[in-house]
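Could you show me just one protein sequence together with its fold in token form as a worked example?
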Amino acid sequence: MTAFFPWLDWTQAAAPNTLNQPILPGWSFLTVNEANSSAPDTEKRIVAQDSYGRQIGRLMDVVDILVREAEKTSPDLSGDKCVMALDDLKARVDEAKAEAQKLRQDRLIEDLLALKRSNAVQFTAIMKAVGTV
């Protein structure tokens, strides 16, 4: 039968062993070009070095410090809607960062335990490299 229909020969792999392909490689939710930036090359270079999230996060941290300092002389500032909105936003961002860090740590622990089971020598070498053994 396979002589007439070679594609029916299931002894050949029907799909690769792993299907790991990025979706939209190099894609960004934001396109920087001449229509939305006066210096797109400069902006692309800056964003490649420090993402918008990192830039905004650092600005948010500084604004938070300035607000806390201003509250020392103007205690009623803490009830301001804008300050309360900033506090809420900062709390959500900090929570998301903490959750992401916990997920990375959990994945690292899982990977190390799997390595310990599969290759104790390499596991020990890694633990020595990080100074735990």
Observations:
- The chain has a mean pLDDT of 83.
- Helices lie at 40-49, 52-73, 81-118, 120-129.
- Residues 36-129 form one domain.
- The chain has one domain: 36-129.
